[in-house]
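Exam revision sheet. Question 4 asks you to relate a sequence to its structure. Input first:
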Amino acid sequence: MAHEVPEFGFTCEEARHTAAYLRSPIMSLLPGDMKGKRVLDVGCGNGYWCGQFLSMGATVVGVDASEQGIAVARKAHPGGRFENILIQDDPLGVLQEQAFDVVVSTEVVEHLYDPRQWARSCFAALRPGGALICTTPYHGYLKNVALAVTGKMESHFTALWDGGHIKFWSRETLSTLLKEAGFRDIQFRGAGRAPYLWMSMVLRGTRPS
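Answer key, structure tokens:
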């Protein structure tokens, strides 16, 4: 039986599959040398990405709403700091931490009722010149047409998935969200499958200096 990971009900196998196709685009948007960088992982789940950044020599803090996820992360990655909290408008004050060089948030924003607060909080956690790297399932015209033609539209956008996606983002709408929060120099990468049928997208936004 597949072991459940507390990241929105993903199994370990599903989590590893997602990380596999996100790895290259995420790494391409990171600063060249992560050694000594301060990283905040918003929605860190079981701490998989935190472990990756720790292995690169970064100082890492992970936050997540799941107590089970945080317990797993603390056990698996004792070199990081993990807190069972929701991201808030004053993340640095709540965490009693200095500003971060990088904020990472993978496959989180599609689950949020208030994505604008998430974007504001990620912005507030960064030092001037710091970067947010976020990922979410990709939606766009050609992918939506393909879903309709293949008869998969109903299952893809199902409302019957407990704890599932409540927002469906395109490159334009997620870019707009980040710009509203103050991010600039928005960069985009597609992840998984063929171009314009991507499984996910990865965006990077920079807090102006």
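Marking note for examiners. The first strand starts at residue 38 and ends at 42.
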